[in-house]
Amino acid sequence: MAILYLQLCDKKNRSILTNIYSRLGKKAIENDSVYNELRKIITAMPEDKQLFKYDSSNNQYVFFLQLSTLYVYASIVDDVTAPKDITAFYNMLTKDLEENGRETGFEKRVAELMNTFNSERSNDEIQKEVLKARDVCAKSLNTLVNRGEELDKLNVLADELSTKVSKFQSESRRMFMENRLRQYFVYVLIVVIIFIIYYIIFK
Prior knowledge:
By secondary structure, this protein is α+β, with helices and mostly antiparallel strands. It has 4 helices and 5 strands. The chain crosses the membrane at residues 184-202.
């Protein structure tokens, strides 16, 4: 998030009172058409709302405009700056104007305010990214630990299944043999009876 450029205009006639770049803005904005587009929006801006947001025609920048009692604040920001952040900046700007006025060192104060605001927001964003990365790492570790536990459970289940399969195989062999014995028992009995009868008769 970065405020690149601020234009302070008179609310009545929309004339430019001052132009201020942040350190980032001097490097980032190279095209004069962006400023011309901002001027057109300022002159056509209605007075029925407090904060306006417009995307630049090249979709590279965002224009935020806000009306105060005496001024129009118009800024060019990057495309990730949130309205609440720019509103907070405009509130700081309004407070500075009320306390110190526009005559003595206004441009320098506002440039410092913009640069401070940009660096504080950048630090906040870095901290948020670090926290997000930490959360992602923690979730990944939890997932890995859970997977490890699941793998251990799967190994135990596989061992139990292997034991049960072995028992089932031995039990099925035993039952197969018992079944065969029952089938052939009758034949063996008949053969034994015939043998006994034959032995008794021909003895």
